[in-house]
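Quick question: what would this complex look like in 3D?
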Amino acid sequence: MEEKNILIFGHKNPDTDSICSSLVMEKFDKNLGFSVEAVRLGEVNKETQYVLNYLNLSAPRLIHEVNEGQPVVLVDHNEFTQSANGIEKATIETVIDHHRIANFQTTEPLYYRAEPVGCTATILYKKFKELNMEIEKKEAVLMLSAIISDTLLFKSPTCTIEDKTACENLAHIANIDIDTYGLEMLKAGTDLSDFTPEELINLDSKEFINGDFKFQVAQVNTACIEDVLQNKVDIENAMTNFMTQNGSNLFILLITDILNSNSQSIVLGDTTIFEKAFSKPVENNLAFLEGVVSRKKQVAPIILNALT
Amino acid sequence: MEEKNILIFGHKNPDTDSICSSLVMEKFDKNLGFSVEAVRLGEVNKETQYVLNYLNLSAPRLIHEVNEGQPVVLVDHNEFTQSANGIEKATIETVIDHHRIANFQTTEPLYYRAEPVGCTATILYKKFKELNMEIEKKEAVLMLSAIISDTLLFKSPTCTIEDKTACENLAHIANIDIDTYGLEMLKAGTDLSDFTPEELINLDSKEFINGDFKFQVAQVNTACIEDVLQNKVDIENAMTNFMTQNGSNLFILLITDILNSNSQSIVLGDTTIFEKAFSKPVENNLAFLEGVVSRKKQVAPIILNALT
């Protein structure tokens, strides 16, 4: 019987970290002699496509589910609600992540490495360093792109000194100017022109569960919040439909201004929880969140704490 | 305001790994400049006391619960059911463990390192090595004792080449003969003479939960199974009382022969799950498990799989 390839993937609605870290982890594991394949759980976004184009790389193969007993490596996520369909029955061998741990469990011991840094790729960078494994230019570009994306060019409060140092060292290997490349890459991701409202709210969307309360936090990056709000009514309709279909209690869409590091948010559903969490009224379904750019650090835990 | 000490502890009913790894992690974190204190969640068993006596060390301070917001480091466990009372409201900063992940969640990102090795101390040994941090004789003895305990002198199927190598290197630092020291230490743990049946079943006991099904697996080491079975009726009564008080569906007591690496088990409650899991009848509340010495690898996952 042929031995099963280990599948490596990031979360649903993959962002640049999920795609790039899957590819880097594939390289890392192959260097160690493992039979692995990076795959993805959804469409590649425009920001990530910019990175793949820069490197003349194809996107990993798209999968929708994993079979029972399939050995897998999770990067950039751990919550089953954000992972492949069937993940409960897969054999999770390794997790490399930088998020809270929740809605996750295994029956067997595993390799799990999480650190409270800004980006999964920063942990991968440390893994290469710890084994004195050479980082080639391709992997350097993948990792630095992921770091720039997750930290919004070091502006996010999730960014740590380790992320910045890793990115700078990787830029040296890749011979890339971080600011020039990074701004081009981020801007590529803000082109929302050919997305329907349904697509827009699903570009980078995550579900969180606390007891019986289910909430969704989606995020889009933009250089101009007003441009996005021109379709506010259509976006709200898409959000309402999503909530009905998914049984969500609350939906927050963060429209993040990457130049000024603020977010306008559209809030639908149980807005009282949002108002309690942020001590701020939701008016006309809107609440402006000054200085907020990080779902992980500045939104999800605030809502989760308000629920408990 | 004085900054809070970070508390470091292993699981309830602490075994040698839980106590020794707490003390080693305390040293590791202090070397890095953190303000930490190793504590424990229960009585020190005789095996561990042998190690502490050997090093002329006091046991860590006993605590029963942690306060809301208390920063903590968990070693050798992650499941809240095995941790301090109040753990849900503590701030878990770090976990170092070698068990499956379950009944665990945080609202914030954290540092989590798990590896599927035989002992937490083996991971700590790697952490010292990765930072080129010197290992002193005291920590060497603590870590090698934990490895000998968890792997039953390398005989457990949980033992990996990394555990054995770490133990050998640590024995070199400590100038200890592993076999001589190890057998003395293990034998110290098999002196069950002054325990009541209630104490016996609580010496090293863990609760597992799958959906609505709650089961307990306790383990005692012995050089002579028959000696332990002389009190079989009293032990069974203690197990039955525990199950009633705790609402457990199943209780398995593993009486492990450390010389021959087998376990006699007393099984009470929903024995059909046990019989399904091991394809073996329970007769007179007993089932002999040939070659079984590891709760983590050879018992808990077998029951968990039979439940799903």
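Answer marked as accepted. Chain A has eleven helices and eleven strands.
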